[in-house]
Design goal:
Number of helices: 6
CATH superfamily: Protein tyrosine phosphatase superfamily
Low-confidence stretches: 1-9
CATH class: Alpha Beta
Strand content: 15-25%
Helix content: 25-40%
Number of strands: 5
Strand order of the largest sheet: 1-2-5-3-4
Structural class: alpha/beta
Mean pLDDT: 88
């Protein structure tokens, strides 16, 4: 467990989640140890749009997915890089999410890419 002041800098997962619709929410990077709290918030699916290895301190999607399974949550990986969402990426996400239950928590490094993806799905 990190010691002060780092514990003060890290906000709890519930404070970082931003609801953008009745069945969707976005968040910045999550950690495996936060998945239990995500389940307690009622999310049934986690959508990761961050490519593995994007930064050195990022947990691999497989770690998040493994922890999600332990808590009865489906985890989906649709990696997006760059700015903007192409039609193929939106179609891939739509297909993957069609097999999932909501509510869905989507995340990336800051929450921006996943917000753009959800907006593209609504067009």
């Amino acid at each position: 467990m990190p010691i002060w002041p780092f514990t003060l800098l890290r906000r709890e997962i519930g404070a970082r989640v931003r609801r953008i619709g009745p069945q969707r929410a976005i968040c910045n990077q999550i950690r495996p140890e936060e998945v239990e709290a995500i389940a307690a918030l009622g999310f049934r699916t986690i959508l990761c749009v961050r490519p593995d290895g994007e930064s050195g301190n990022q947990p691999a999607f497989a770690e998040i997915a493994r922890e999600a399974r332990r808590h009865g949550i489906k985890a989906v990986h649709v990696p997006l890089s760059g700015f903007g969402v192409g039609r193929a990426q939106a179609a891939q996400a739509k297909k993957a999410l069609s097999k999932c239950r909501g509510p869905v928590l989507g995340y990336c490094r800051s929450g921006g890419r996943v917000a753009a993806l959800f907006a593209a799905l609504d067009r």
